[in-house]
């Protein structure tokens, strides 16, 4: 395999102390925005969407029930005469909150589990790996539905359910990285000077798995947005009174799709565009942070 | 090869037990006592007496310690007895026997559609790398990964009504009794379900084909004067398909999970629809049974794939 040269020390196996300095982060963001304009555009849209609403998303208006898209309501009205556009804009918050948080929590717990499992090795590693193996047999969506069944519908429960669903794959992926990091001289050195478990794991190994971790968070994010929408679409995710993209596609959007297609088309389009943009962002991040993976997809 | 299969099968048993343990504790421990949930009713504030609670606990068996409950449940599973549905109060095994074949048919059909389209798509994309053909194939696969399957389902229904004024026949016709109606009912749901996997498999095929294309044995095959068609089909594709086989286990799981959504859109009375209905009814025994059936199906398929993989790739077998 050809090892491409990179300006980032992480992928060349040299230890990184703490996080990257701010200057380097800006430099990367800048380079990223120039190289992947669509990915950067997606990130900006996703972050600033909540500030563009024109109506109160909960405001009902009998005169605007199934109003077609046009001058009165930009993207039309729904079965209660609420503004589809404003609901979409507010739905972006739910989507991003659930997506970001569950991707972040799932990947973080997975990273600690994966890295600690490698560090302690032996029986611990064997048992943890068996459990992870078993959890991998649960399709993530089914695991999330089972957890939602136990916890009940709410936004934070969606975050919990999705986070748990991401732990096994994060632990699996980061374990392989940790196996390589463990053999590095600086970990050996840390052990030789008698560093404790916590110090080796959190100061020595985890900082050197961060590149893969960031890539993983971005990959999870896209799927988490779809997963949140799926749960809400099924009616077991976010409660129906909270505007969410998945919830908007449930009920009337399905039954009356031939009479009021805007109800079914726009929320789906919003999900598709945001997920597409985050996927591009993920691809771009992967190219920048881990050149070994470049071009494999 | 026998030793390899035996080892895989032995590993299968503890994994299976662990899976049942995870499901049990996930659903029994988090919500507390199912008897309480049932008595509290849909709104959660219905009144009941202590005696009623004790009676129901005794009936459901939740008055016993957790390990006894787990033991009883697993012993039941071994005899294919999944217990009583808490909502419908009929045997769960009967529900599953009715619904599982429907879901399995949908999954297999989706997998067939996905693979039949994806492999040629990925292959062409790799052979014609960086040409317009490749770009079109890649756009199709990137879109497929970004579009949520329930939206694809809704759009398919919309376009069918809009352009053909046609909807798949309602209800469910058995595949063996009325294959024509059955296929009309299942073709479009399977398309919606398989679209994502199609895109995913196409991407995997493309990248592994590109890798194999640079291998020495491909050059050797070409060097000894074989026709390009033979090089691609006999030498390159055969090796490039190994990763595709590897991911198909995950895909099967994802498709099974995807049926939950698709069955709800197309009103197919399968296991996925039952799962969502059971979540609404807070019917834990039913949810528990469906999650176990799905997980065990994935585990069995993974076991089969391990064996097939060992047979396809001797390097794995002797490692």
What's this entry about, in short?
The complex is a heterodimer of chains A (297) and B (319). Chain A contains 12 helices and no strands. Chain A has 297 residues and is mainly α.
Notes on the structure:
The complex is a heterodimer of chains A (about 300) and B (about 325). Chain A is an all-alpha fold. Chain A has helices spanning about 20-35, 35-50, 85-120, 120-135, 140-150, 155-180, 185-190, 195-205, 210-235, 245-250, 250-255, 260-290. The radius of gyration of chain A is 22 Å and the shape is elongated. Chain A starts with about 20 loop residues before the first helix and ends in an 8-residue tail after the last helix. Chain B has about 325 residues and is mostly helical. Chain B has helices at about 1-30, 35-40, 50-60, 65-80, 90-125, 130-145, 150-165, 180-215, 215-225, 230-265, 270-280, 285-310, 315. The radius of gyration of chain B is 24 Å and the shape is globular. Chain B starts with a helix and ends with a helix. The model of chain B has no long low-confidence stretch (mean pLDDT about 85). Chains A and B meet through helix 4, helix 5, helix 9 and helix 12 of A and helix 1, helix 6, helix 7, helix 10 and helix 11 of B.
């Amino acid at each position: 395999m050809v090892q491409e040269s990179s300006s980032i020390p992480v992928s060349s196996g040299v230890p990184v102390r703490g996080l990257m300095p701010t200057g380097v982060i800006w430099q990367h963001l800048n380079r990223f925005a120039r190289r992947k304009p669509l990915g950067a555009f997606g990130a900006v849209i996703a972050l600033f969407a909540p500030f563009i609403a024109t109506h109160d998303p909960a405001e009902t208006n009998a005169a605007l029930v199934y109003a077609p898209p046009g001058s009165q309501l930009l993207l039309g009205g729904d079965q209660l005469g609420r503004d589809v556009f404003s609901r979409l804009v507010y739905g972006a918050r739910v989507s991003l909150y659930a997506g970001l948080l569950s991707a972040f929590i799932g990947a973080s717990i997975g990273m600690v589990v994966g890295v600690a499992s490698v560090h302690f090795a032996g029986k611990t590693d064997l048992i943890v790996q068996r459990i992870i193996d078993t959890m991998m047999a649960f399709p993530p969506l089914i695991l999330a539905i089972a957890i939602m069944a136990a916890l009940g519908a709410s936004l934070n429960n969606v975050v919990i359910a999705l986070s748990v669903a991401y732990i096994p794959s994060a632990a699996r992926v980061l374990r392989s990285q940790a196996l390589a990091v463990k053999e590095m001289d600086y970990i050996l050195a840390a052990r030789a000077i008698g560093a404790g478990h916590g110090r080796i794991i959190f100061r020595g190994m985890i900082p050197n798995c961060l590149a893969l971790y960031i890539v993983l968070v971005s990959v999870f994010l896209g799927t988490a947005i779809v997963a949140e929408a799926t749960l809400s679409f099924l009616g077991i995710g976010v409660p129906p009174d909270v505007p969410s993209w998945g919830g908007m596609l449930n009920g009337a959007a399905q039954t009356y799709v031939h009479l009021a297609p805007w109800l079914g088309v726009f929320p789906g389009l919003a999900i598709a565009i945001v997920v597409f943009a985050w996927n591009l962002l993920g691809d771009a991040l992967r190219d920048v942070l881990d050149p070994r993976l470049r071009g494999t997809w | 090869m026998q030793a390899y299969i035996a080892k895989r099968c032995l590993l299968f048993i503890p994994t299976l037990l662990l899976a049942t343990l995870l499901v049990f504790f996930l659903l029994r421990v988090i919500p507390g006592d199912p008897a309480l949930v049932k008595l509290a009713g849909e709104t959660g504030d219905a009144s009941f007496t202590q005696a009623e609670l004790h009676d129901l606990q005794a009936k459901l068996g939740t008055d016993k310690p957790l390990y006894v409950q787990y033991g009883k449940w697993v012993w039941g599973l071994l005899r294919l007895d999944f217990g009583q549905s808490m909502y419908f109060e009929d045997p769960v095994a009967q529900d599953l026997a009715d619904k599982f074949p429907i879901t399995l048919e949908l999954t297999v059909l989706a997998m067939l559609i996905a693979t039949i389209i994806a492999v040629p798509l990925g292959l062409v994309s790799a052979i014609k790398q960086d040409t317009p053909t490749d770009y079109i194939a890649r756009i199709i696969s990137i879109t497929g990964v970004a579009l949520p399957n329930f939206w694809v389902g809704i759009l398919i229904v919309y376009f069918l009504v809009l352009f053909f004024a046609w909807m798949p026949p309602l209800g469910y016709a058995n595949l063996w009794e009325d294959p024509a109606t059955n296929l009309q009912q299942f073709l479009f749901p399977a398309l919606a379900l398989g679209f994502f996997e199609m895109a995913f498999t196409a991407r995997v095929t493309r990248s592994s084909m590109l890798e194999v294309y640079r291998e020495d044995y491909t050059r050797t095959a070409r060097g000894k004067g074989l026709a390009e068609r033979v090089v691609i089909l006999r030498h390159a594709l055969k090796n490039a398909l190994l990763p595709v086989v590897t991911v198909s286990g995950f895909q099967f799981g994802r498709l099974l999970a995807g049926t939950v959504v698709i069955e709800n859109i197309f009103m197919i009375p399968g296991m996925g629809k039952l799962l969502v209905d059971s979540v609404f009814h807070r019917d834990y025994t039913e949810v528990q049974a469906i999650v176990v059936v799905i997980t065990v199906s994935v585990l069995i398929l993974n076991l089969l794939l391990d064996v097939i993989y060992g047979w396809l790739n001797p390097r794995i077998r002797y490692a």
